[in-house]
Amino acid sequence: MNKVDIPAIIVARLPIYLETLELMYKEGIYKTSSRELGDRIGITAAQIRKDLSQFGEFGKQGTGYSIPNLVAELRKILHVDKIWDVALVGTGNLGTAIARYPEFNHRGFRIVMCFDSDPALIGTKVGDITIEDSATMIERIREANIKIAMLTVPGSIAQQVADDLVKAGVTAILNYAPVALNMPPDIIHVQHIDPILQLQQMTYYMD
C-alpha cells in the first residue's frame, strides 16, 4: 500500500505502539499479544491488528508478536531506524526546553542547529549547540542537508520563517507557533502542536 493511502490516524498510532513496545522490552518482556498491548494503551486488540495489517504480517495467531522484531519493523516503517538531524528555530523558553530534552537522541532524532534573531541570544549556547543568527538559516540548513525543522517562534513571524525553511530544503516542520501555516502539502509536511487546541478537544467531552 502506498504511504498516502494509509489513514493519518493509523500513522499517528504507530509511534504509540513503538514507545509502548520499547518500554515493555526494557521491562524484560519479549513477547506480547495485541490484547496485552491494547490493554496498556487503551486501544482494542482488533484495532491494533487492523493497523499493523496495513504494513504486513508481524505475528501469528496464538503465538503473538516478538517484541524485538516488531520494534525493528515499526522503526523501519517510521524511518527512525536511523538518526535524523533537526534544526530548531526559536530559542526562547520553549525552544530552549525542547533543545535540552534528552530523549531525542534515543528516539531517532538529533538537534544539530539552533537559530534565533535576538542579538542577545546569538552566539550563546543551548547545551552543546551554539545559537546561530536566523539570517544565516537558509544557507546553513541547505549546506547541512537538514530536512526536519522545529518551529518555536512567535506567531507573527511563523509563516515567513516557515517559507524560509522551505527555501532551505526542509520537507517537514513541527510547528509550535500558535498559528496555522499555509504550506504546499505536496512539498512539505507540517505537524501542528498547540496545547490549547488539545485542551479544547478534551473539554468537548467534559460537563
Automatic annotation (TrEMBL):
Domain annotation CoA-binding: ranges: 79-180
**Residues reported in the UniProt entry to bind NAD(+):** 90-95
Any one cellular-component term (Gene Ontology): cytoplasm
Note the SUPFAM superfamilies from the entry: NAD(P)-binding Rossmann-fold domains, Winged helix' DNA-binding domain
Q: Name one GO biological process term.
A: response to redox state
DNA bind region: 16-55
Localization, UniProt:
Cytoplasm
Q: Which UniProt keywords apply?
A: Cytoplasm, DNA-binding, NAD, Repressor, Transcription, Transcription regulation
Question: GO MF terms on file?
Answer: DNA binding; DNA-binding transcription factor activity
Q: What InterPro entries does UniProt report for this protein, alphabetically?
A: CoA-bd, NAD(P)-bd_dom_sf, Rex_actinobacterial-type, Rex_DNA-bd_C_dom, Tscrpt_rep_Rex, WH-like_DNA-bd_sf, WH_DNA-bd_sf
Where is it chiefly localized?
cytoplasm
| Domain of life where this protein originates | Bacteria
User: What is known about its subunit structure?
Assistant: Homodimer.
Give the protein's function.
Answer: Modulates transcription in response to changes in cellular NADH/NAD(+) redox state.
Entries under NCBIfam families matching the protein: PRK05472.1-3, PRK05472.2-2, PRK05472.2-3, PRK05472.2-4, PRK05472.2-5
Q: Which family does it belong to?
A: Belongs to the transcriptional regulatory Rex family.
Q: What is this protein called?
A: Redox-sensing transcriptional repressor Rex
What is the species of this protein? Answer: Ornatilinea apprima
